[in-house]
Amino acid sequence: MVRAFFKTTVREIKNSIGRFLAILIITALGVGFFAGLRLTEPSMTATTDKFLTEQNLFDFRLLSTLGFTEDDVKAFDGVDGMTAKGAYNVDFLGLSEGGELVFKAHSITDGINIPRVVDGNLPSADNECVVDANISGAAPIGSVIKVADSNTDNAKDTLKYTEYKVVGHVRSPYYINFERGSTSVGTGRISGFIYLPEGGFNSEAYHEIFVDAPINGKAFENEYDEEAAVISQKIESILNERGQERYDSIYNEALSEINSNQAELDEAAAELEAEKLKLEDSKAEYENYKALFEQYESFLTEEQKAEYQKQLDDAAKLIADGEKKILDAETAIAEGQAAIDEARSELDSLSVPSLYVLGRDTNVGYACFENDSGIVSAISVVFPLLFMLVAILVCMTTMARMVDENRVQIGVFKSLGYGNFTIQSKFLIYSGLAACAGWLGGYMLGSYFVPRIIWNVYNIMYNFAELEYVFDPLLFALCFLAAIGCACGTAYLACRAELRSVPAELIRPKAPKTGKKIFLERIGFLWKRFSFLHKVSARNIFRYKNRLFMMIIGIGGCTALLVTGFGIRDSIKNIVAFQFDEIMLYDYNVSIEGDTDSVYDNLISLDGIESGLGVYQTSVNLTNDQERLDTYLLSSSDPRFTDFVDLHNGNEAIQYPENGNAVISAGAAEILGISVGDNITVNFGETRETVFNVSGIFDNFFYNYIILTESDCEKATGSAASTNAVFLKATQNENSGDLAARISGISGVTSVTSTSDLTDRVSSSLDSIEYIVVFVVICAAALAFVVLYNLSNINIAERVREIATIKVLGFYKKEVSDYIFREIIALTFIGAVVGLPLGKLLHSFVMQQIQVSSVHFENRISVWSFLIAFAMTVVFAFLINIFMARRLDKIDMSGSLKSVE
Amino acid sequence: MDQFVVFEDVTKIYKTGSVEIKALCNTTFEIKKGELCVIVGPSGAGKTTLLNILGGMDTLTSGHVWLENKEISAYNKRQLTAYRRSEIGFVFQFYNLIQNLTALENVELAAQICKDPMPASEALALVGLSDRSANFPSQLSGGEQQRVAIARAFAKRPKLLLCDEPTGALDYATGKAVLKLLQDMCRNTGMTVVIITHNSALTAMADRVIRVKNGTVSSVALNENPVPVEDIEW
Ligand SMILES: Nc1ncnc2c1ncn2[C@@H]1O[C@H](COP(=O)(O)OP(=O)(O)O)[C@@H](O)[C@H]1O
Ligand SMILES: [Mg+2]
After folding, report:
1. What is the position in ligand 1's atom list of the atom closest to the CA of B41?
2. Measuring from atom 10 of ligand 1, which residue has the nearest CA?
3. pLDDT tens digit sequence for B43-99
4. Which among A147, A373, A495, A790 has most CB atoms closer than 10 A?
5. Cα–Cα distances in Å, from A361 out to A61, A227, A229, A622?
6. Which candidate in B112, B156, B159, B165 is best for mutational testing of the A interface (most A CBs within 10 A)?
7. A454, A369, A456: which is closest to A177 by C-alpha?
8. Chain-centroid distance, C-alpha A285
């Protein structure tokens, strides 16, 4: 009995392989999409966790305004299994092959924040360094980075050598995204990091301590945060102790120095007093002698007179000298006293150091990653839902058809005394096998490829490692249940009704579904315009409601996916062009220093420069309650500003702000949830905070900007907003490489950024967007094919008699296929039309999810994308029709009409 | 040749895998224009095969078939379709109406593709179903459905009306009415009608009786005095 059933099932699969594949593929698509998208975030997290674990990113970073000593480090090292390492860092301007860049130099900490060597090797001498792989082009191996003379004394003192030899390129767990942070040096933005051996630094105190704590939880997971919170308290208490101690030691040292200086000074003062007295004595003696000399002058010979006079003069000179010396000494002592007093008051104002225990979430890369990786999760619900819905519809229609075809067989088995379950099991096994195969295949492919494709896109911002494969048994099982539930559930429902009927009823042919008038026929004037055959198609379209839905949802979904795919490209691909053709209209952004007026004059008189604009630019933070956004501040009193930065919102021009007002970029507004008329808080440095009213929001795609008037800038930053950068427009056809070099050659120019370089760089990384588009198109095509194939297949199988009849009536090949496919084409059009707005919705949903802090994607779909999506859907339908037309041709008239079904 | 239909040495072999079934073997017969011809024979004798070849629904293995001096057996697929379209009307045992079309529309479907069709309503009137023209097949009885099928075939004004066991699925009285309709049509319009049956009693109504046995024509008899269907009992 079991074998007989197994046989009929296998034969059934063989005979209806297309139908079997339809269920298989739609299940695979649904499962693949779901599993893939679900696993993307865990895979990304696992990859990052692995990288961070291997490179051992710090768990805690300790800061003190007084710095740390060796003893401070020892106080943490070894406590509760922790490892602590002191570290140095300094921002400096460095001259590299790529020009003057702002670097952040870190000391290599043994076993914590281990840089991963991409090429070359780690430094072996103190005057060697390894450089950020992101700027490997600017500092190739073998080149040197010179510490620029224009650096602050602090920077120059902290770096032991004046130049460092590049011996390798590395990635650092400390910088997992592209963001390198801002600084007070140079352009305000760090171009890249470098790592030096500890010996490459020259500093009394460590600038920071990195702590590696024994935490079991994985990065980005709650367990990590919980464990970290506990250890953090312990560290804090030690840190406070050490801070007090460090304060005490600095205080006592300074105090004892002051005291000893004071003692010395007092001694010196006392000596001075003694000398003073001596001088007084000598003076008195001199006066005596002088009186005596004057008294007896007449008794002396000329020689004697001259001799005594000389002696007296000498003495007077000595006394005058002495007096001067004493005066000098007195001022010196007064000065010394003043210095000591100052030191004393300084010491009085010396406070206990501010201490910070910073966790990983204060690391920009780590925090951004946590945010950005969450994006996929949201998408992972909507997309698979679409496929699931279609899958259910496909299974339902397919199984219903299959049960119909097997009516007689069911009846026979039933009359032979087989139980319902046994009879049902054939259908359950059929759909179950298809679903199982689809589930396995879909899971394998989906869980491998989908995360990789998305990771490729993320590589624009994060590129540190190959993606890890994550296997999630729970998800695996969940997909299985969903697939099996969907397939077998529909199979069960399909045959339930048949199983209720008695065998006799089943063996008789099923009463054909009654023809019905459709609502369109009630609209007389419209109906009359239809040609006869169109009327037939129209009626057929509405004959089977679930097929209508399957078609519209399936085809609509396909179109929607295509619109989304192309839309994503539209929204992302052109932002580079928009940014530099429509918004930032300058060709070079040049940072300058020194006598800025003359530097500016020199710049605009360069050959190949059309015009220039002096601006003030710096980095600030914009904040609201939750977010803190790194933003460029721009300001210029020049009314030509909008010739260089076109402020607009759509077609509407935005005015340069007045005093008290600010204009911000669209990305910043979106992230901070700010609209025109709201207030915005600008943070500068640690403590400075100013509030402005937002008077305009302008379209902008890269980075975030806030624009203020010069006097507001001063309020915001506390220093005069004098020109520190020049925007330059080149005349047409200017060789940019040469021009950039000539710009750099002008003294006072600290850095040159060419927008064309930036455009090239960003464009090439955005090319990976194509992956997404191709991926989406393939999925959409697969969806369309499955739905269309399944529908055509069922349509034909169910209507063989009808088709044979019209063939007998003498319909030509073309007329027959028109007769059948006209409704499929019509449904395709309806589905595609429904899919267009659906695609727009889906697209804006997806774009909302992929907001990234420094890139603002535009929610734009071009008309072309709509057209192409629509056209492709229709083309898919035609392809299927061409394929299925062959099947129509094969239908044998006499055979099909011989008997009843 | 004044013969309307000529079958000459027709052989039809079905090949299913390695098995060969000889459905027709050297069949030869003729039918004159305007005749009512009945083909009788036991089940499996090859009647349907014969009719299908005559109607252009199937091809033959060897031999020749002519209709009005045109050799049908030499037609290609497309020509056969055109032939079915303009020359032939079919009536089947299981009506084969399109379920989603009303009676009138089923007739229209055939009329659509003809050059000079009979108006669909007229064809329906001819079979006496004017008042049921808006009904769907499922709303009609078997006899009524078969009459719609006849109207559908007739609306094309075919040269040859082929009926394969038209009463096979009908009860006695209804079957009789359908046969009467066919006989009347033949008499009134002069159309050549071929009816297949396994019921020998029906031979009485025909002008020409062709007996088929084991894939060959065993005898052809001309009937001088065909009996009206009403008078035949079986
Ligand atoms: N498509 C087919 N494939 C194989 N054998 C067929 C086919 N059609 C008919 N036959 C065989 O040809 C013979 C004649 O069949 P048919 O013409 O339908 O007989 P009848 O209509 O007289 O009952 C039968 O033996 C039948 O099995
Ligand atoms: Mg037969």
Report:
1. 22
2. B23
3. 888 888 888 888 888 888 888 998 888 888 888 888 988 888 888 888 888 888 888
4. A790
5. 11, 14, 12, 19
6. B112
7. A369
8. 89
Q: Is A804 on the interface with B (CB under 8 A)?
A: yes
The reply to whether ligand 1 has any atom less than 6 angstroms from the CB of A895 is yes
Say how far apart CA B224 and CA A84 lie, in whole Å.
122
Q: Which residues of A touch B98 (CB under 8 A)?
A: 536, 802, 805-806
Residues 6 or more apart whose CB falls under 8 angstroms from that of A495 comprise A399, A403, A410, A423, A424, A427
- Distance, CA of A44 to CA of A451 (rounded, Å): 8
pLDDT for residue A663: 93
Ligand 1 pocket, mutate which of B10, B11, B40, B49 (most atoms under 8 A from CB): B49
Predicted local distance difference test score (pLDDT) of residue B1: 47
| Ligand 1 binding pocket includes B12 (Cβ within 6 Å) | no
**How many DSSP H helices and E strands does chain A contain?**
27, 22
ipTM topping 0.95: no
Residue-wise pLDDT tens digits, A81-104: 888 999 999 989 898 887 888 899
In a mutational test of the A interface, the residue from B12, B85, B99 whose CB has the highest number of chain A CBs within 10 Å is B99
Angle at A629 between CA A624 and CA A633, to 5 degrees: 110
**Residue at token pair 């169910």:** A798
What pLDDT shows up at residue A615? 92
pTM for this entry: 0.68
Ligand 1 pocket mutation, candidates A890, A892, A893, A894, criterion most atoms within 8 A of CB: A894
Measured between beta carbons, the chain A residues lying within 8 angstroms of B102 are 515
Length of chain A: 901
Q: Do B78 and A813 touch (CB under 8 A)?
A: yes
Cβ A612 vs Cβ A728: under 8 Å = yes
Residue ranges of chain A whose pLDDT lies below 50: 901
Distance of CA A555 to the CA centre of its chain: 34
Q: Please list every residue in chain B whose beta carbon sits closer than 8 Å to the beta carbon of residue A893.
A: 52, 57-58
Q: What is the pLDDT of residue A510?
A: 61
Q: Could B101 and A536 be called an inter-chain contact, meaning their C-beta atoms sit closer than 8 Å?
A: yes
Instruction: Check CB contact under 8 Å for B84 and A533.
Output: no
Other beta carbons within 10 Å of A481: 11
Distance between CA atoms of residues A737 and A756, nearest Å: 10
Per residue in A288-338, pLDDT tens?
888 888 888 778 788 888 888 888 888 888 888 888 888 888 888 888 888
**Residue A893 touches chain B, beta carbons under 8 Å:** yes
For residues A323 and A302, what is the distance between their CA atoms, to the nearest angstrom? Answer: 31
Whole-angstrom CA distances from A58 to A46, A181, A349, B9 are: 17, 18, 34, 97
Q: Mean pLDDT across the stretch B31-44?
A: 88
Q: Is B21 in the pocket of ligand 1 (CB under 6 A)?
A: yes
Transcribe A399-467 into DSSP letters. Answer: HHHHHHHTHHHHHHHHHTT--HHHHHHHHHHHHHHHHHHHHHHHHHHHHHHHHHHHHHHHTTT--SSPP
Question: Distance from the CA of B44 to the center of ligand 2, in angstroms?
Answer: 7
Report the run of H or E that residue B111 belongs to, with start and end: helix B103-112
Q: Report percent pLDDT > 70 for chain B.
A: 99
SS3 track for A155-203: HHHHECCCEEEEEEEEECCCCCCCCCCECCCCCCECCEEEEECHHHECC
CB-based contact (8 Å) between A14 and chain B?
Answer: no
Q: Does A515 touch chain B (CB under 8 A)?
A: yes
Who among A539, A543, A808 is closest to B90 (CB)?
A808
Amino acid present at B228: P
Residue matched to tokens 């007329």: A815
**Strand ordering across the sheet containing B160-164:** B88-91, B160-164, B192-197, B36-40, B208-213, B216-222
